[in-house]
Structures are given as structure tokens and as C-alpha cells.
Amino acid sequence: MIWMLFFALLLACDVSRSQCSICTRTAQQMGERPARALNAGIIYLAFMPMTIIAYIGWRWWRSNHQAA
Predict the structure, then answer these.
(1) Domain extent for 54
(2) What pLDDT shows up at residue 53?
(3) In-domain check, residue 27
(4) How many domains does the chain have?
(5) Is residue 53 assigned to a domain?
(6) What would the pLDDT profile of 2-61 be if each residue is shown by its tens digit?
(7) Whole-number Å distance between alpha carbons of 40 and 5
(8) Rounded distance, CA 64 to CA 58, Å?
(9) Which of 12, 17, 40, 52 has its CA 20 to 30 A from that of 67?
(10) Would residue 34 count as lying in a domain?
(11) Is the dihedral of CA 17, 19, 24, 27 positive or negative?
(12) Residue 14 confidence (pLDDT)
């Protein structure tokens, strides 16, 4: 069940376009192709912090389940 949720959220990531209001305005002024590159850059830069947070959360969850 958790894997299905993970993949559903992964697929929804493309739909959300990962932009704040300032980035959205900038992307609208740049055109289609540069806007897609901006979206890819935002996702690329967000990947490592999100991976670190997920790893810390997984270690915390695992340590709590092993203690119980």
C-alpha cells in the first residue's frame, strides 16, 4: 500500500509543476521550452533535500519499530 502511494505521489509531481508564484510568472514570460527547463531545474534541486529528509524519516521510523 505504501509503495502504491509513493508511485501515485511520484506521478502527481509532474502535474504540480513545482513552482512558487514568482517562478510561475517568470516561466510564463520565458515561453514554453525555457519554462519546462525551469521546472526540471526546480525538481532537480529539490531532489537531494527531499531524499535526505526521507532517509532521516525512514531511519526514525525503523528505530521506533525495532524498539517496540
Answers:
(1) 16-67
(2) 94
(3) yes
(4) 1
(5) yes
(6) 777 777 777 666 555 555 777 778 878 888 888 888 888 888 888 999 999 999 999 999
(7) 22
(8) 10
(9) 52
(10) yes
(11) negative
(12) 57
Burial of 28-59, coded b for 16+ CB within 10 Å and e otherwise, reads: eeeeeeebeebbeebeeeeeeeeeeeeeeeee
Tell me the three state secondary structure of residue 31: coil
Backbone angles phi, psi at 24, to 5 degrees: -65, -45
CA-nearest of 41, 3, 2 to 19 is 41
- Which residue type, as a one-letter code, is found at position 26? T
Task: Give Cβ neighbours of residue 53 (< 8 Å, ≥ 6 apart).
Answer: none
The answer to whether 39 and 18 are in contact (CB under 8 A) is yes
Instruction: Flag whether 48 is in a domain.
Output: yes
**Model pLDDT, residue 17:** 55
Q: Identify the three-state secondary structure at position 46.
A: helix
